[in-house]
Specification:
about 400 residues, 2 domains, single chain, Aspartate Aminotransferase, domain 2, alpha/beta, about 15% strand
Length: about 400
């Protein structure tokens, strides 16, 4: 056992999540995680204090401004980004639509946009629809359904000198595949295109460094990593300066605010900052003098190792069930498994587990193209996803529940 695991106090971590007291074993993290007390308290405290539109003249104005500034810095620390390039929105889907419309203003008929069969539909449909509005061509990058791999060669095969943007996931929310984004980025930029990365599932499980990944735009959702329901996009400020979104005439033209439509949800931003701080406290580096980014590096390594250990436990247990096929096979992947069960509906398996206090949902989870490419149609399979608060007992309950479901 490594130092990270020995210092990862899962019992103490679980005690911070009031929802776990209900007794459910949650394997639904890819759809949204449970919320720790510090995040709940931060949201409550923000609402309990004076709040107004941002400014510096009254306590309410100053509180709002402080919340926004701190949330931008927290997300910058989490993503390895510039706080001046952090854009908040209602969801990652909304941000993809907003940025697809804005970027499409720079496209012409004959320009090309690349999407992939691996992605969540929120990183496919907005780009297809925006391309259609301006007469741009959509090209599809495929993945290998046998291995779940989407390779740089798959992207390279559909690049041309007319490519303007490539939209690709950093991790599949359906089968966990983690494409080689840094290498893909080099190919995309060599072709003179921009790279929009869906990091919603990725950010929950590993350290993000958008410069290292080479992402021009990187989107994520705090509610996938213990925070409130919100969307966040990180981009380079100098790139954002070149884009002109539709906005209200009196709204500021400053970056990043020009991309944020209407008044921000201050209480959710306070919760987002608290979620990042909570994550930073989960690693072996507890030195309060260390910077938040430094502590996040340590914490995300510990979380990743903890989750991968549990994933191995699940995979070992599942190997005893001949009827179960694990569709998540990529060499690099998140602790997210998609299962199909010979002779059984995974919807029935989901309901069986739910009756026993185990939440492992069934479906295609908006990754329709990936589910269809796997030969699963729109039905998908049973998704088992891990989060920082899962423990070995959760895993044993899951395996016992599946064993009971498969009993003749």
């Amino acid at each position: 056992m490594t130092d990270e695991i020995t210092t990862y106090d899962i019992a103490a971590i679980r005690a911070q999540f009031p929802a776990l007291a209900a007794g459910t074993a949650h394997f639904d993290g890819p759809g949204g995680t449970q919320t720790p007390l510090p995040v709940i308290e931060a949201i409550t405290n923000a609402l309990a204090q004076p709040l107004s539109n941002r400014g510096d003249g009254t306590p309410g104005e100053r509180n709002a401004d402080t919340i926004v500034t701190e949330a931008r810095q927290a997300m910058a620390d989490l993503l390895g980004a510039d706080p001046s390039g952090i854009v908040f929105g209602r969801s990652a889907t909304q941000l993809a639509y907003d940025f697809s419309r804005t970027l499409a203003k720079t496209w012409s008929p004959g320009d090309e946009v690349v999407v992939t069969r691996l992605d969540h539909d929120s990183n496919i449909r907005p780009w297809i629809q925006a391309a259609a509005q301006v007469g741009a061509t959509v090209r599809w990058a495929d993945f290998d359904p046998a291995t779940g791999e989407l390779t740089p060669d798959d992207i390279s095969a559909v690049l041309s000198d007319r490519t303007r943007l490539v939209a690709v996931t950093a991790a599949s929310n359906l089968i966990g595949t983690r494409p080689a984004i840094a290498e893909i980025s080099r190919l995309v930029h060599r072709a003179g295109a921009l790279l929009y990365v869906d990091g919603v599932h990725y950010t929950a499980h590993t350290l993000v460094d958008i410069d290292q990944l080479g992402a021009d735009f990187f989107a994520c959702s705090p509610y996938k990593f213990l925070g409130p329901h919100l969307g966040v996009l990180a981009g380079r400020p100098e790139l954002l300066e070149t884009l002109q979104p539709d906005k209200l005439l009196p709204s500021t033209n400053a970056v990043p605010e020009r991309f944020e439509l209407g008044t921000l949800p201050y209480e959710l931003l306070a919760g987002t900052r608290a979620a990042v701080d909570f994550l930073a406290g989960l690693g072996p580096n507890t030195d309060t003098a260390a910077g938040r980014r430094e502590r996040l590096v340590s914490a995300l390594a510990a979380i990743e190792e903890h989750e991968d250990t549990l994933r191995a436990q699940i995979e070992k247990g599942l190997s005893a069930f001949e009827q179960i096929t694990i569709r998540s096979q990529a060499a690099e992947r998140t602790p997210t498994l998609l299962l199909t069960i010979d002779g059984h509906s995974t919807t029935d398996a989901y309901r069986h587990l739910a009756e026993r206090g185990i939440h492992a949902p069934s479906g295609s989870f908006y990754a329709l193209e990936a589910s269809r490419r796997l030969g699963l149609g729109d039905t998908g399979g049973l998704r088992v996803g891990l989060a920082p608060y899962n423990d070995a007992e959760d895993v044993e309950r899951l395996l016992a529940g599946l064993s009971d479901f498969l009993r003749p």
